[in-house]
Amino acid sequence: MGGLAGDMLLAGLLDAGADLDSLRRVPAAIGIEGVDIDVERVERQGIGALHLRIEAADDHAHRRYGEVRDLVESADLPERARARSLDAFRRLAEVEGGIHGVPSDDVHFHELGSLDTLVDVCGAFVLLDELDVERVASSPLPFARGFVKATHGVLPLPAPATLGLLAGAALVGVDTEAELVTPTGAAIAATVVEVWGALPPLTLEAVGYGAGTKDFADRPNVVRVVLGAEASRPTGRVALLETNLDDFAPELVPDVTERCFEAGALDVWTVPAHMKKGRPGFVLSVLARPDAQGEIARVLLEETSALGVRVAQLDRYELEREERIVVVAGGTVRIKVGVLDGRVVNLAPEHDDCAAVAKTTGTSVKSIWAEALARAQTP
After folding, report:
1. 253 φ, ψ (degrees, to nearest 5)
2. pLDDT digits (tens, 9 = 90+) for 21-70
């Protein structure tokens, strides 16, 4: 995107299909009067886009955070839009308070306390609700340079409040001297964006372009809104750790496996491999959650002859998991249950439990396993 500001996002949402009348009802819903909202079709670097103008009569911009919070809390807005608006202004107050060294309740919003900022923030969440947007993803935001004159003086760009709001966001440096991302745009994004980076898989339904006021020579000053139905996506993130071994005693592999599981491994396995100089060997692989990969890599380096461990980050489709308990031959067996879209699609008795009951009763493990599975399937 060329940049992100509150009015640009509103214009992009309108261009993607949101209703202008819904936005025009927002000032009255907040309890403010004398606000006019108009849009016009413009062009930025050959791209047609909507440009939004919000004009407020007799506006005094220096509102305290508490005053803004009270206005939003009492506003006649959809519940989720009101909650998100409150969250965005809370984030702004906390960041501004941290910058100026005052409690958030004592923060005075200067430019950010204006009526158009109130309409930008509340209006964005109202239009997202109207468009039935459930999840929001964003490409990396442009990190420009330069300075901007504000109430407190001359500030570096991006403004300190903007950077404070974007902790955890993806940024990309650009050689442009301008305010491409405003605190208002950053507050909205920080509140709703769940994924930063590449566009998630989706079926495209609509595209909208919202234009900023300036027309830059090096980039189209627009934000692009892409709407679509989300495709099936992985529900889990895992790390795959692997090392090739041709000089390691195979009888020690079970010890390595045990330590890997103790360190948080989800699965451990080996695959035969033909190594250099014709040596037979094997690949030792470990699947784990990303937060456990460091400890598991240490285990592999300590417990095997490996000189290095390669790591890959993978997405994984996962079933929701539950556990049931059934009684078989007087013993208890745990049942692993896999659920997909509310339906049970997998049932698996825990082997160790089956083996323990079989040993106690003197029956075969497979008979205990079969009976446990049958009991688990009984309503």
Report:
1. -60, -45
2. 999 999 999 998 888 999 999 999 999 999 999 988 766 566 788 888 99
Those residues with Cβ within 8 angstroms of residue 209's Cβ, 6 or more apart along the chain or in another chain:
11, 12, 15, 44, 47, 48, 49, 50, 222, 223, 224, 225
Strand, coil or helix: what is 317?
Answer: coil
Top-level class of domain 320-377: alpha beta
Q: What is the mean pLDDT of the chain?
A: 91
Which residues, 6 or more positions from 254, have their beta carbon under 8 angstroms from its beta carbon? none
Question: Cα–Cα distance between 287 and 127 in angstroms, integer?
Answer: 42
Which pLDDT score, from 0 to 100, does residue 105 have?
73
SS3 state at 110? coil
- 249 forms beta bridges with none
CATH class of 236-316: alpha beta
Rg of the chain (C-alpha set): 29
Task: Write down the domain spans for the chain.
Answer: 6-230, 236-316, 320-377
Alpha carbon of residue 353 to chain centroid: 38
pLDDT tens for each residue of 136-156: 999 999 999 888 777 667 888
